């Protein structure tokens, strides 16, 4: 990447691997007790060991409970450390409200940005269609999608798993990442370190994935803490 | 050498796969069961677009319910967004004519196939691919986003009906041009390419070429006919990465292009494009140097080590066959020729690759 004033909002494949490593490390530091982001290496050619070094970040089995009373979305087992609810117990008490989500962060070589793939399923493993998944999104999510033309939700084949997953289309990512970082003056290595937490903070707002704010602390002049409103 | 061949493109657009479509036995409610229907599937087309031709033959025998159409080949559901010709080249190493497919109108396998409600879904998928190609070529999708309604309609109709003449009329307005022989620049139009005018480059080109690879790992046997049918899409690797020519001189051949995407499958005699690059290289477009593998990147600065690693992996697998539009192009074919004449209407070059793991590898 060139200097910040020339930077176009994209990240190279190599830098993505570096950023993923940093991000999963930082996540573990900030949330030692919670589910971790794991790097899943995938050979380029399935069934062989060819092309090591390629892969994606995976966070699976995030449980998401939807209150049946007033449709307030709350999350257990995630960001808020005080709320360390036992999901297994919850599932026993009210099966219907519990949905589980898997999140994968892949690198897209056409748009040179990360892409969030996700899927939701019921307690019994039954996958959720996109319409049902949207109901689990936070209330302001639909307005974000409607107002900004930078992304839209779609269901496509997961490039590695070769099965339908939902994803946020990457075509607009470059533009808003550029905007997000426009007032920062970061060195290249610092920008790489902050790329994923910043990116995920934004896309997370659409799918209701909350990052602990602590993940941005300790990162000097994070574009996110400068820019984001409390969710 | 002529980099653009009107004749070649015409052959590609006229290319079609004879299909024999059988209704799945679970959906046959009448006796005698309906005969299979024969249709011609354009190579550059998509299976769901054939449904209007197929459905009338089976309408009267279907069980009650809503149609959710899908196809399978020997039990494997077919991904509807992949062009028909590509599916055929990938799944039939030894061409089967006619190609026997099974159609289903019920029980859509949502776990394996993304939703498809017919022509609209296919059109949307096509336009999305075209946008992605435009982004790869020009760094933005503007030319596609700004298409007039009339142009959009004509473009889609030309793909739907396989009418090259109509497609050729709309294409100049997509501002995607044709690749020059050096594979680094694009010219505005095919005719200018022929006359050799050089003051006609498109602005803001990235030098990236849209390519989609479908790689199938097959048994290491000599006879293609003996290769068993695919039993799962998990055995197919899908690589959607642009090709870039970083060579300093010499002809950029099909071989060089494939090598840049799959360096481990080529012998140690030709240097990997990723080897000469350093980690500190500035600029955004060094994406494909990463195809050499992040793990190998540490070794990239040490030529002897990298060569050793490359020999080792080269022994692990070999390319059996590469097919583009049903053709096996020679390795020395100029890549620009392959791209300009064998790409699909979505401006992607779809390449099927059959590889075999060598004996003695794990």
From TrEMBL, chain A:
Single Gene Ontology MF annotation: Atg12 conjugating enzyme activity
Biological processes, Gene Ontology terms: autophagosome assembly; autophagy of mitochondrion; protein modification by small protein conjugation
Chain segments annotated as transmembrane: none
Parts forming coiled coils: none
Top-level taxon in the UniProt lineage: Eukaryota
InterPro entries linked to this entry: Atg3/Atg10 (IPR007135)
Family per similarity comment: Belongs to the ATG10 family.
Name of protein: Ubiquitin-like-conjugating enzyme ATG10
Automatic annotation (TrEMBL), chain B:
Localization annotation: Cytoplasm
Domain Autophagy protein ATG5 alpha-helical bundle region: 119-175
Biased composition annotated in UniProt, kind: Low complexity: 292-310
Boundaries of every Autophagy protein ATG5 UblA domain copy: 12-105
Domain Autophagy protein ATG5 UblB: 208-353
Family matches, as Pfam families: ATG5_HBR, ATG5_UblA, ATG5_UblB
Similarity comment: Belongs to the ATG5 family.
Summary of subunit composition and partner proteins: Conjugated with ATG12.
Name used for this protein in its record: Autophagy protein 5
Natural source organism: Spirodela intermedia (Intermediate duckweed)
């Amino acid at each position: 990447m060139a200097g910040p004033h020339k930077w176009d909002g994209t990240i190279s494949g190599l830098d993505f691997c570096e950023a993923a490593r940093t991000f999963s490390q930082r996540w573990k530091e900030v949330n030692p007790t919670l589910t971790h982001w794991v790097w899943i290496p995938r050979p380029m050619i399935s069934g062989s060991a060819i092309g090591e070094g390629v892969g994606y970040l995976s966070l699976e089995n995030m449980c998401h409970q939807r209150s049946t009373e007033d449709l307030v979305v709350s999350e257990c087992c995630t960001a808020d450390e005080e709320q360390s609810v036992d999901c297994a117990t919850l599932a026993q008490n009210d099966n219907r409200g519990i949905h589980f989500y898997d999140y994968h962060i892949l690198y897209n070589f056409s748009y040179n940005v990360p892409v969030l793939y996700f899927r939701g399923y019921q307690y019994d493993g039954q996958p959720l269609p996109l319409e049902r998944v949207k109901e689990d999104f936070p209330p302001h999510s639909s307005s974000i999608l409607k107002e900004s033309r930078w992304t839209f939700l779609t269901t496509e084949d997961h490039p590695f798993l070769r099965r339908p997953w939902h994803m946020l289309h990457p075509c607009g990512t470059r533009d808003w990442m550029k905007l997000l970082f426009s007032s920062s003056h970061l060195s290249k290595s610092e920008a790489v370190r902050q790329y994923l937490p910043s990116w995920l903070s934004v896309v997370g707002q659409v799918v209701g994935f909350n990052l602990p704010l602590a993940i941005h602390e300790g990162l000097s002049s994070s574009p996110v803490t400068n820019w984001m409103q409390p969710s | 050498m002529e980099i653009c061949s009107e004749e070649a493109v015409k052959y590609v657009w006229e290319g079609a796969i004879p299909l024999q479509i059988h209704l799945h036995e679970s959906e046959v409610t009448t006796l005698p069961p309906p005969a299979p229907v024969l249709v011609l599937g354009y190579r550059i087309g998509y299976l769901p677009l054939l449904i209007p031709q197929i459905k009338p033959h089976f309408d009267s025998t279907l069980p009650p319910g809503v149609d959710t159409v899908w196809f399978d080949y020997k039990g494997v559901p077919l991904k509807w967004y992949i062009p028909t010709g590509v599916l055929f080249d990938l799944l039939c190493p030894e061409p089967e004519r006619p190609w026997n497919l099974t159609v289903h109108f019920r029980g859509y396998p949502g776990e394996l196939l993304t939703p498809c409600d017919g022509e609209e879904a296919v059109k949307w998928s096509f336009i999305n691919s075209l946008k992605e190609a435009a982004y790869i070529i020009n760094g933005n999708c503007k030319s596609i986003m700004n298409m007039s309604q009339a142009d959009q309609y004509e473009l889609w109709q030309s793909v739907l009906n396989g009418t090259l003449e109509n497609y050729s009329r709309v294409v100049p307005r997509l501002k995607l041009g044709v690749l020059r022989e050096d594979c680094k620049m694009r010219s505005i139009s095919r005719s200018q390419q022929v006359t050799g005018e050089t003051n006609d480059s498109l602005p803001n080109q990235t030098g990236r070429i849209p390519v989609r690879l479908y790689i199938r790992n097959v048994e290491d046997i000599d006879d293609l006919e003996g290769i068993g049918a695919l039993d799962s899409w998990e055995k197919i690797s899908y690589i959607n990465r642009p090709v870039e020519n970083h060579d300093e001189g010499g002809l950029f051949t099909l071989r060089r292009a494939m090598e840049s995407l799959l360096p481990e499958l080529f012998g140690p005699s030709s240097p990997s494009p990723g080897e000469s690059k350093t980690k500190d290289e500035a600029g955004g477009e060094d994406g494909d140097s990463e195809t050499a593998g992040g793990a190998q990147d540490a070794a990239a600065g040490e030529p002897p080590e990298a060569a050793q690693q490359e020999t080792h992996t080269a022994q692990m697998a070999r390319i059996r066959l590469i097919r583009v539009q049903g053709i096996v192009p020679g390795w020395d074919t100029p890549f620009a020729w392959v791209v300009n004449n064998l790409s699909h209407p979505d401006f992607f070059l779809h390449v099927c690759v059959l590889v075999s793991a060598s004996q003695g590898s794990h």
